[in-house]
Design a protein that fits this description.
It catalyses: L-asparagine + H2O = L-aspartate + NH4(+). The chain is built from 9 helices and 11 strands. The chain is of the alpha+beta class. The protein binds asparagine.
Length: 284
């Protein structure tokens, strides 16, 4: 099993080593699986459980003080599953897999996604906020009221970084997945690129892609599909990632990171933020 993971594009972390150790552990979990699908789900589960990453527990807090999770998963045969804006679910990638395997849909949102996930044994009453996260949120003096009443505050404080993603390959099967709490202090109910196929993740039989960065700009440029398209045109994994990021920056002047694993097992990594931690195992 070949697998590559990222822990989100953003600033240089205060303590990179413990985050790197969790990423390496997640790669080990993923590499031990039988299929690329199992590999990306089990690797991202490890990262979703860790409050050091913006996914699952410790994900970005929205304007009403809640964390809502987004995730998407795609296989090289174009099967897709995704969940958006889900309260109480840390294992968002597992929930996305349930949508792919058990429903006729590709994307289900919110409490409805949680209801379906619960039926398939996924915990749906998980506390996703951490004490540190809530403290930082309160320091920003968030206003009471509904989403409209919080909008002025959101326009001032919205931002942040993070997200986790994985791509795995075994033989001619590939899987790509991305999972996040979104960006910090977004308006309650905001959904970014992560659960949208072609934006936060994409996979064809040429290769799989997971991206991270400012979701609104990633959606504008369908960054994952753009990268996968370059692979289809014959670019190498690294060159596809770099070309797609250049185009993204030209179009949006924004920040992102991209990981790629192609059908030959070659990897590509690029980002224009200050840092993006990754880990990989390239043993077939
Ligand atoms: N930093 C991130 O990768 C966040 C994610 N792309 C989002 O906008 O929801």
């Amino acid at each position: 099993m070949e697998i590559i993971l990222h822990g989100g594009a953003g600033g240089v972390p205060d303590e990179p080593e413990p985050r790197q150790a969790v990423l390496d552990d997640a790669v080990e979990h993923g590499a031990a699986q039988e299929t690329p699908l199992d590999a990306v789900v089990s690797a991202l589960c490890v990262l979703e459980e860790s409050p050091m990453f913006n996914a699952g527990v410790g994900g970005a807090i929205q304007s009403d003080g809640q964390v809502r999770t987004d995730a998407g998963i795609m296989l090289s045969d174009l099967e897709i599953g995704a969940v958006a804006s889900v309260p109480g679910v840390s294992e968002a990638t597992r929930a996305a897999r349930v949508i792919m395997e058990e429903t006729p849909h590709v994307l289900v949102r919110g409490e409805f996604a949680a209801e379906v996930a619960a039926g398939f044994g996924i915990d749906t009453n998980v506390t996703l906020t951490t004490e540190d996260g809530l403290e930082e949120f309160e320091e920003l003096d968030p206003p009471d009221g509904d989403a409209f009443e919080q909008l002025e505050w959101v326009n001032e404080v919205f931002g942040g970084a993070g997200t986790v993603g994985a791509v795995a390959r075994s033989g001619d099967e590939l899987a790509a997945a991305t999972s996040t709490g979104g960006l910090s202090y977004a308006i309650a109910g905001r959904v970014g690129d992560v659960p949208q196929a072609g934006s936060g993740f994409y996979c064809t039989d040429a290769g799989g892609v997971s991206v991270t960065g400012t979701g609104e700009d990633i959606i504008r440029t369908t960054l994952s599909q753009r990268t996968a398209g370059l692979l289809e045109d014959g670019e190498s994994a690294q060159s596809a990632a770099e070309t797609a990021l250049e185009e993204f920056v030209d179009l949006t002047d924004s920040t992102a990171g991209i990981i790629v694993l192609d059908a030959d097992g070659d990897t590509g990594i690029t980002f224009n933020s200050d840092a993006m931690q990754t880990s990989q195992s390239t043993e077939e």
